[in-house]
């Protein structure tokens, strides 16, 4: 049996009696790239919130690398190795991509040495590698304000990776991107998936087709079904919940 990076056991999150998550059982293996889809209101964002500790389960538990995250504050969960990419890029616009990576990487988690030490040659090398991975070598030294929206997204993914998380949570990374930028983000996530466990939430079905190995469909706070892209796409229950949404 593969080791699990993440499991939820019967997780229910109630907001004044409304169950945003309803007895959610989910698990993914170490090293897996998983895509979670579902109509609006299915509970996708709440699912990420309950993993990162922003929201506590009303019932049930969340296990990261086999350990219960119950009652841990968000920053401690992050320190245990869960990194979250929010939908809108949060990069420092007046700094270059290289500087953005330097100030956010946790080479030794000491703010003062980050501010005052000269970078070690080996670290320089690793930033070059990261800049190449995110496709920003040629733009490494211009202000991030001059990057396109897609490039900013890639930079922020790079900043997340620089913190060496064991699990990356990525919320709707291609919303508002051009087809070409969407494709680039997909290729980047596929590259990162060779060395990370990644959980991606996404709406864009072309993008899901590009990156997905296994897809989980959420509906009304529970898992509706799971499978590869073709299985999920052809599942009558999935078609029904998506069509139901379009008719509203
Ligand atoms: P998704 O990301 O799949 O669109 P969400 O997780 O954002 O869905 O929301 C799931 C449901 O829970 C929605 O009906 C939403 O209105 C409700 N919900 C989310 N957060 C709260 C909250 N803080 N208080 C009350 N209801 C909430
Ligand atoms: Mg959402």
Description of the molecule:
By secondary structure, the chain is an alpha/beta fold. 38% of the residues lie in helices and 25% in strands. The protein has ten helices and ten strands. Strands 6-7-8-3-9-10 form a six-stranded mixed beta sheet, with helices on both faces. Strands 2-1-4-5 form a four-stranded antiparallel beta sheet, with helices on one face. A hairpin with a 2-residue loop joins strand 4 and strand 5 (67-68). The longest helix has 14 residues, at 149-162. The protein starts with a strand and ends with a helix. Residues 109-115 have low confidence and may be disordered. It binds adenosine-5'-diphosphate and magnesium ion (MG). Pfam families: ABC_tran, BCA_ABC_TP_C. Residues 6-245 form the ABC transporter domain.
What is the compact description of this entry?
Helix content is 38%, strand content 25%. The chain is an alpha/beta fold. The protein starts with a strand and ends with a helix.
